[in-house]
Amino acid sequence: MTALLLPTVSKNRLLGLLAVLTIAGCDPSYETTSEKCASGRDLAVRSTVTDFEVETTGNDYKLLLEDILTAYQAENGAQLLDENGDPLADQAEAQTALDNLRAKIDEFLDYEVVNGEVVSANNPIDYIEYLINTTNPDEVIDFFVSAKQQIGAAIAADDGYCDIQNRNIAIDTLDNTQDLSVTARFYFDPFSQLYTQDEQITLTETDLGDNSTTRSQFTIFSQLEGSNFDINGYSSPPLVRQAITTNAELDEQLNIDDGFDIKLGQVEFISVDTYCDADAEQRYPTSPGVDPAEYDDCVGASPRPPQKDQCRGVGDDSIDETNKIAFNTYALNANYPEIKRFRLETDFTTGEVRVYASEFVEAIYDSDGTRIIHDPTACEEQAVIDELRALDEASADPEGGPYRVTRYQDPDYDILQDDDGNDIEPSPIITFQGTVLPERQ
């Protein structure tokens, strides 16, 4: 406890904390809540399983995307609408976009939906979360049981922090094709009265034919009020559940934000450009100080053409990024064949579902202040800065810098603000009435 925190504590709680500190000083065998929680760190956890499938029946654990994907099911007879609420002219093409959106989500987190109902998931995030919360005697893991008991005791005692961390958790499949390496943290803050839980997971997949391996990353974060923490089973409702997953090629990412507090579920997909050379020391062309000439050319990939002369080998001391960078996109449908981002929103209050799409992740204005460069490389950003400096120095009244690029955001995707600081909502490409979940309203 630090002196800076004491003014935020109620009088009764402060007296209780002082009493605990007094007892601790008199009894050398006394362990504070923080000391008890620290004693179980990094205990080895080893388990072998058939797969990472979790079903929705037979347990009280709620799958990460269970509510969002249930709400994503269109109400019977619901038409697919544009941003103005009018029926889209090509309903079939719009449905193709919704189907492809779901397919991309399943590439990261495999879910099975039958007749509009989520029945199972097969992915590392849901499996680890399930193991932490299961009460099935055939599947419980002692460390998770002990950690939850310690958190429960800390919440009941309400006299100190409880921070339990374990970086020594490994889950393998029986066929030796999939291995999970997990770092888990369980944390209770007596001042905010919030319980936080997060896991960082690395999935290693092995091809037994050539013994090659690939690795994917998963992170999940959840938070709830300490009063809702359940030692036995799944604690509900959380305030928020968030997750980030990255594919093995490091060029795609899926972000999940299920906001129980704001009654909004969001799933966002992001695709970024990378150097085609898989062995490149720097994977991303946004990293400065890279000479692309050292990297292999693109083969079988759609290369991104350089957007500035200084980056296509024109002139002295220029960099040539021609045929070095993969233009990574995803096709939602014929109308949106090359997108870099999509976002699915489920409004649990109204049941409305909204889908947004963008052709870039980041963008800047060129030195003319008009042309927009999508997903600029480090070379292109520097070229724009150099041109801004040259224009300023050639002007009648030079300002002398500093010189920096001007960012551009997508008004059809990003939330912008007007001059008064009010949010300007983007325009969805598809909206429709989804399935209403009364428990989430």
Report the average pLDDT across residues. Answer: 90
Find the structural class using helix and strand composition: alpha+beta
How many β strands by DSSP? Answer: 20
Topology pattern, helix = H, strand = E: HHEEHHEEHHEEEEEEEEEEEEEHEEE
Record the strand order, biggest sheet. 1-5-6-7-8-9-10-11-14-15-20
N-to-C CA distance: 39 Å
Query: Count the helices. How many?
Result: 7
Give the CA-based shape.
Answer: globular
Quaternary state of this entry equals single chain
Radius of gyration: 26 Å
User: Strand percentage, roughly?
Assistant: 25-35%
Helical fraction equals 10-25%
Describe the protein's topology.
Layout: H1 11-26, H2 33-38, E1 45-49, E2 53-55, H3 66-71, H4 91-108, E3 110-114, E4 117-122, H5 124-133, H6 142-157, E5 162-173, E6 178-189, E7 194-207, E8 212-225, E9 240-246, E10 252-259, E11 264-271, E12 274-275, E13 325-326, E14 341-347, E15 352-358, E16 363-365, E17 372-374, H7 378-393, E18 416-417, E19 423-424, E20 430-433
Parallel strand pairs: 1-5
Antiparallel strand pairs: 2-4, 3-4, 5-6, 6-7, 7-8, 8-9, 9-10, 10-11, 11-14, 12-13, 14-15, 15-20, 16-17, 18-19
